[in-house]
Each structure stands twice: as structure tokens, then as C-alpha cells.
Amino acid sequence: MRVAHVITRMIIGGAQENTLYNCLDLIRDYGDDVLLITGPSLGPEGNLLDQAHAQGLPVKELPHLVRNIHPVTDWKGYREVKAAIKEFQPDVVHTHSAKGGMLGRRGAMALNVPAVIHTVHGAPFHPYQSALARKFFIACERYAARQCHKLVSVADAMTDLLVEAKVAPREKFVTVYSGMEVEPFLASDQLRAATRAELGIGAGDVVIGKIARLFHLKGHEYVIEAAKQVVAQCPQAKFLFVGDGILREQYESDIRAAGLQDHFILVGLVPPKEIPKYISAMDVLVHTSLREGLARALPQALLSGKPAVSFDIDGAREVVINRETGFLIPPGDVPQLTSALVELCQDQELRQKLGEEGRERCRKVFPHQVMTRILRKIYQEVLQSNGRDIA
């Protein structure tokens, strides 16, 4: 089988890791011919292309496949994507992200590719946009949905959101959870003592961690606000931010203004392979993004045996079960966020109970090999329905 994946950029992020694992699994486990088509990966979010090259994944980098919308650039990007697909002659085109999804699907259908699949990692429209922007992106997604044979959601919540917006009928969707390398998380406690010593974390400290870009709508400001009361009631609390971005200086200023410098550790951007190391130092994961398909940090923390406190957005409730694997909080509700964090800080047995339950629920669902096996079956089903029987 010949499979082309199209994604706007290969920064360090959940959609990008998902795509990389899928590409590599298809090559290693099934002997497929795979090409990754992507644009420049610029900015403070890091770059996964080096990892792709190092593992022998064929990559076609297109200069005009970029995130920002511009008619001339997008036309050039479309022609580049279409030309790359035509040259590769794939049986399957699997697209990701809004721009890559739009241009990749249109180009693949124009070339009569037998199977065109798109994964919805997160909807490009959300309540925090202007009404005009939201209508525009919904219209774009409705158009793009007609340019593929199947839509894959990383969480049932994504399907519900897009069906409600009339992007496509429910029968066109299937949920496939975003896979990852689970073993390093299952074994992460082996790294705990050394990592906490490296970070200057004491034996009695309770570490509340957040893994996300320091960017708009990721919700770090809610954690900083809650930290004021958490630290007042639990002086042993420490906060660990993993990630970087354009809002770093603002958050560092907010932390200083609150007099919480001694309670916050910002480690910046780290390679994906080091995420288990930093989760090992945590006791609780907090996730306060205001929009996200299903943040990889949630199952990663649960696989590591750490309970999660999350805003109840998108797919979070599919892994964070209230008082079973963590706490679900109404988005933006700082008092409830504070209360949950204080309770977990003060109750080690509860942390252990919730974390162990989360580990058992996630360990069979999130291996990347499971994801790829399901996706490849979808490819085969679409190909067969279109008169192509490829093993």
C-alpha cells in the first residue's frame, strides 16, 4: 500500500506525534510505502522533522504549505501539494490539520486518489473566535468534508462537535484515539528520584504539572491564579510547566507579581521522548486548555499513574472520569480548580487510587500500534468500497 500523509507543519505537538507514529508504523509493521508531505516547521514550538529524517521516513517539505491564510500563498501551496501527491501516486492520502487537510483533500480528490482520509485532531472553529471567523471556518470544514471518504476523530467529542455544526453526517466519522509509545510512561517512576533531584524538588513537595505550549487558550493563567490559594493552603505545592511559547515572559511576570517564584519551575520546550521524565516528577497533572481534541498529556499522565485535573472540554471526559481517574472542572472555574488541586495535594492515597485506575484504563487503548492497526483497516475498507483490494 502506498500512503501519503499531509500535515501543515511538524512542530512538537499531539497531531504531529500522532502522524509520525502512524507513518513509521506503516513502514515497519506493514512494509507500506509512505511519504510525509509537510510545510516549514518554524517558530518556538520545536520541530519533529529531525526525528522523522533520523528514522528514515521519506519527507517532502513544501515552502508554501503554511498555517496562515493568504490567497496567493495558499494557491501555490495547493499546487505544490497536488504535484507531490501526483508524483507519489498513493493509494491513500491521509490528511491532518486545517490547512493541510483542506489542500491535501482537495488535491487528492482532484487526482482521483482511491482513499482520502482526514483526521480531526481539533476543530478549527471554537467559541473564542469572532462570529464571522467561526462561520468561515465551519464553511471551510463543510467543503473539505465533501473532499474525502472518511473522517477520523481523536475523540467522540470531536465527532459530536462537527456533526452539531453540520460539517458532515455522523456515519462519515469514526473515532480512533491518538496513539503513543506507552511503555516509557508505564515505567516512568524509575526516573522520579533523579528528575526531582535535578529540578530541586524536595521529598515532601507535591508537584502539579502542566504540559502545553505557552500560548493563547492553553490556560496557564488559570493555573497561576489557582496557585495563589493552593500554595496558601498547601505550602508543599510546586508547579511544573513543560513547554514554551510566545506568552512565556507574560507568565513569568505574573508568577513574580504573585510572589510565587519559589513555587514554579518552567523547564521550557523539551523533546517528546523526555516527557515521561518530567511526568515522573509530578504528582498531579493539570490541564486547563479551553479547546483541544484530546490532549495527549492526559493519557500520558494517567499511563504514568498520575491523576489528572482537567477543564471539561472536548475529549477530556473520555479519559478523565470524575473522582475515578481525576477531576473534571467547568472551563475557567478557578475556585473549583483550586479546590480539586488542594484536595489532591492533601491526600496521597487519593492521588494513588485515581492514578492507578487511570493507568489500567489507558494502557490497552493508547499504544500507537493499536492506532495504526485500526487506521490501516479503515484504509483497506475505503479502498475495497471503491473497487481497490490492497493488502
Written overview of the protein:
Pfam families: Glyco_trans_4_4 (PF13579), Glycos_transf_1 (PF00534). With about 400 residues, the chain is of the alpha/beta class. It folds into two domains: about 1-180 and about 365-385, Rossmann fold (3-Layer(aba) Sandwich), CATH 3.40.50.2000; about 180-365, 3-Layer(aba) Sandwich (Rossmann fold). The protein has helices at about 15-30, 50-55, 70-90, 100-110, 130-145, 155-165, 185, 190-200, 220-235, 250-255, 275-280, 295-305, 335-345, 350-360, 370-385; strands at about 1-5, 35-40, 60, 90-95, 115-120, 150-155, 175, 205-210, 235-240, 265-270, 285, 310, 325-330. It is globular.
Mind sketching the topology for me?
Layout (H helix, E strand, L loop, with lengths): L1 E6 L6 H17 L2 E6 L10 H6 L4 E3 L9 H18 L3 E5 L1 H13 L4 E6 L10 H15 L4 E4 L2 H9 L8 E3 L7 H4 L5 H8 L6 E6 L8 H14 L3 E6 L5 H10 L6 E5 L6 H6 L3 E4 L9 H7 L4 E4 L14 E4 L4 H13 L1 H15 L5 H18 L6
Parallel strand pairs: 1-2, 1-4, 2-3, 4-5, 5-6, 6-7, 8-9, 8-11, 9-10, 11-12, 12-13
Helix pairs in contact: 1-15, 3-4, 4-5, 9-13, 12-14
Brief account:
The chain has 391 residues and is α/β, with parallel strands linked by helices. 44% of the residues lie in helices and 16% in strands. The relative contact order is 0.13.
Q: Architecture of the largest domain in CATH?
A: 3-Layer(aba) Sandwich
The first-to-last residue Cα distance is 7 Å
- Structure class: alpha/beta
| Strand percentage | 15-25%
CA radius of gyration is 21 Å
Protein name: Glycosyltransferase family 1 protein
InterPro entries: Glyco_trans_1, Glyco_trans_4-like_N
GO molecular function: glycosyltransferase activity
Keywords: Transferase
